[in-house]
Amino acid sequence: MFFGQPLVPSIDAAAVPADAHVLDVREPEEWAYGHIEGAQHIPLGELAWRVAEVPADSEVYVVCKVGGRSAQAVQYLNAQGRKAVNVDGGMLAWVEAGRPMVSETGYPPMVV
């Protein structure tokens, strides 16, 4: 346990495979400003009732802005029998690692 929270499986942003199934659990506005191309988007607050949309037969890499919400999602998904891994440091670490992002705003992608 870490500060009262159970540890979850995690990976550095730089080590996420290029063909990985990425689940982004941030809010819609955060997603619109910048996200990983090809990622699945299910806000954390919707995950419990949309869990059937998350693949059960492959590893899922879960991301948020800094890693807290995604850690909660990983705990939940693994309890539901999924194979989920937290992306350490979230989208901020993704950008720091030089990994690509896309935006739906018409402006260059950014993490908000």
Automatic annotation (TrEMBL):
The GO molecular function terms of this record are:
transferase activity
- Please name the source species: Carbonactinospora thermoautotrophica
**Which SMART domains does the UniProt entry name for this protein?**
RHOD
Keyword Cell division on entry: no
**InterPro entries for the chain:** GlpE_sulfurtransferase, Rhodanese-like_dom, Rhodanese-like_dom_sf
Q: Which UniProt keywords apply?
A: Transferase
Q: What name does the UniProt record give this protein?
A: Sulfurtransferase
Give residue ranges for domain Rhodanese.
Answer: 16-103
Q: Which domain of life is it from?
A: Bacteria
